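Escalated from tier 1: adenosine-5'-diphosphate holo job.
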Amino acid sequence: MSEYILDKQYFVNVIKDLIKLAEDRKEYFTELDSAIGDGDHGMNLSIGFREVEKNLDEWQKENINGFYKKVGTALLDKVGGSSGPLYGSFFMKFGLPVKTKGPDEGVTFDEFVEMMETGVKIIEKRGKSTTGEKTMLDTLRPAQDALRAAYEAGDSPKEAMAKAVEAGKEGLESTRNIVATKGRAMRLGERAIGHLDPGAASSAEMLEIFYKNMPDA
Ligand code: ADP
Ligand code: MG
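Tier 2 regenerated the structure:
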């Protein structure tokens, strides 16, 4: 059996789909943020990923780390609010475990699991946050933990990622019952109960894009 590889095109396709997601779901993310934040989450993602789209062809010449660093920098530079710096940092660090790869080299699934861990960890660090605080981490941390557990238990890469997506969705759903202790929704206290966290929602849809683009074997 040949080794499972996620090639460079996979990582480019994911970004292309994220650009599309930011446009297609702009109103939905804004609606969620209007309920418990300041109603700009959709706009923030849209501004950031439009900037990414402008330079995509040029950036594709880099290796995976270089490419994602450019994506992350664009989000950091162009997006105000909390989500820009947090998602920006995620993409800035995502490729770090594979920084020595050549421009046309892909990564093993083992490396992919490390990349995800690196990305989620930087959000935890920058956000000074953890699960149970009604943020994107309520999606991302359980997803990452499920990804690693499933992979280590011998699931195929795509099966492992499917479990990650599922765990992320459960995490997202859990944000309905959480009083926020981070981000703008904190100010609402109990009134945030019943509402999904917008960042947890966008994270869940992003993970699904990472999943859908993965080859079966
Ligand atoms: P802002 O809150 O500045 O208006 P956005 O509306 O774009 O920025 O993003 C809000 C989302 O950012 C929240 O729904 C939450 O998921 C996430 N978020 C905010 N603060 C933190 C934090 N400290 N750690 C992790 N995620 C956070
Ligand atoms: Mg907002």
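The mean pLDDT is 96.
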